[in-house]
Prior knowledge:
3-stranded antiparallel beta sheet; 19% strand; 6-stranded parallel beta sheet; alpha/beta; 10 helices; Rossmann fold
Amino acid sequence: MSAPVTVVLVHGAFAESSSWSGVIALLTEAGVAAVATPNPLRSVSGDAENVRRAVEGIGGPVVLVGHSYGGAVITEAAVDDPAVVGLVYVAAFAPDHGENALELTGRFPGSTLGETVRPYPLGDGTHDLVVDRDLFHGQFAADVPAADAAIQARTQRPIRDFALGEAQPAPVPAWKTLPSWFVFGDADKNIPVEGLRFMAERAGAVAIQEIAGASHSVMVSQPEAVADLIIEAVRKLSA
């Protein structure tokens, strides 16, 4: 591959772009170009279009990295885009056509997210959802220092409930045609670890890294492990 690969990081629900700060610092040290693009968290199809525009603006080969709901977004955004050469899922959904985040979460036991989410009506019949700030640390980021988790709780971006229930649009999701890598923790309380394993194995991932004791906020608590897997993907795809 002649042009260098750029990593585009896509945050998920109840997070925002600064959740990638530790990972970006490590990628930069390794000489890997990386940007975190904002994710509106309104709908899979609309959010994917936002990522497509970011990829187009880079003008070279890209590895898309998605966290949580961001995995559904990159799965759609990469479809039929020749600039995208690989996918990295960080505690993330990798839905098949017709699946959605809510259904995949409930398919396997272990998620306690529903008990901590608070809805706010938007006036169009849909709702914005946030994780209760007082419960955020234990639910979302149990292995992150309490002071840091408190900041995450107060900077989280709400997600529209429609986005979590929207069926994956593309008939052939991108993980069926592109190489993928998966990293997640076995103490994830948002997406059941059994579900994360299922999606990684179904995708035929090049590598699956499961981190003992890591929470859903694995990119914050374990930036070295996440960055190392991304670097592995970039180097393999650049060879």
